[in-house]
Amino acid sequence: MKRCMMIIGLLSAALAPAWSQALDLTGANVWVRPGFDDSWTRAYPSPGDESWTLIVGATEPWPLVMRDVPLPGEEPASRWSLLPAPHREWTVLIPFQGDLSLLNMSDPALYLDHVGQAWAVYLNGVLLHSEMVARRGDYLERSLRGVIVSLDKRRLVQGANFLAFRIHGDPADDRTGMNSAGPYLLDSYRTLLALDAEYIDLMLIGIYLFFAAYHLVLFALRPANRGYLFFGLSTLFLGLFLAARTMAAGALVADTSLAHRIEFLAMFLAVPCFLAFLEYLLRGRTGRVTLAAGLVFAAAGAASLFLRREPFLYAWYALAAAAAARFLFQLGRALAAEFRGLRDGTEGTAFRRGLRAFLGLVPRSVAGKLALGAVVLGAAAAFDLLAARGGAEPV
């Protein structure tokens, strides 16, 4: 009997992480104040201390971006500012209740879907993890996604516990703070590891880069066919864009602002290359408007390397929408021309000739195939937009 009880006890201990329920920090009350001091990381704020701002987790959803926190006596920072502002610090205090399931967990850990720009996290006044890397009187940018921080079980107590973040960064930047709707969880380390899987993303990046190299080699062998060049550059920039957004990039690059610059530059350069490829397929050449649009995209991408990048993101939305509208107009004209050509080349009544021409557009014309691809691309974009609205991540 004792042996059975011992076996049951060992199995219970081994399976405790699987039985435990994750603690969602986005539902907790959060206190925020400017500045930082160790004494603020281990207890509730003093009653009547107006330096703190309370954010009620049950009614005020995340993201928790410092510029959006209504601190007393401070004007909200403008997201349209092109120049970086002097960096500042904030303290973010998140109390939570430590129950027996958390205290008995063999590998408790904290999952942060996003945190930046420079930051450190404390548990009951004790430093757990720091990304405050000093550089020339300031700190490197360490804006990271998918961070898992192991908790020191010796510091956990039954009842009230306190997680505190020291946040350092540009007060106008959307990456200063926790720019994500979640998840922000306390759970088993082994369970949280599943949230950081990037296998599919890395596979897609590898596929894009392979196609880029393949088509650029084809262009080197056949330089008269510029379609190879435009498609190769499009997939190259798309692969770089996705690679710069991965969690692996944050682990490999000491200053994450470098990965962010690569992301924006690739984002701006991919659009004109893709449009040039589509126009080359439609017309066999690229026009002056496409060249001018490419120069505008390239100039905006170069400017984003040195100025605050968020305003350029809004500019990219406008430029990309205008470029897409122009392509759809060109595609519509090409479809109409090819439809007339197919209709006039058949016999029968007007209805039958029109029906045969319509059914033959996709398999028999370049414009029809491009139209089908545009429908698929639009559906994918709509799906991404809905996914972003449901649980946005930092751009």
Coarse shape: elongated
As a whole number of angstroms, the C-alpha radius of gyration is: 27 Å
Provide mean pLDDT, rounded.
Answer: 80
Number of helices: 12
Within the largest sheet, what's the order of strands?
A: 3-2-5-12-7-8
Beta-strand content: 15-25%
Poorly predicted spans:
1-20, 384-395
Structural class: alpha+beta
Give helix % range. 40-55%
* Span of the ends, CA to CA: 58 Å
How many beta-strand segments? 14
Overview of this structure, please?
It is a single chain. This protein is an alpha+beta fold. Helices cover 49% and strands 18% of the residues. It has twelve helices and 14 strands. The strands form four sheets. Strands 3-2-5-12-7-8 form a six-stranded antiparallel beta sheet. The chain has a four-stranded antiparallel beta sheet with strand order 1-14-6-11. The chain has a two-stranded antiparallel sheet with strand order 4-13. Strand 7 (118-123) and strand 8 form a beta hairpin. It is elongated, with a radius of gyration of 27 Å. The protein starts with a helix and ends in a 5-residue tail after the last helix.
Keywords, separated by commas or semicolons:
395 residues; alpha+beta; six-stranded antiparallel sheet; four-stranded antiparallel sheet; 12 helices; disordered N terminus; disordered C terminus
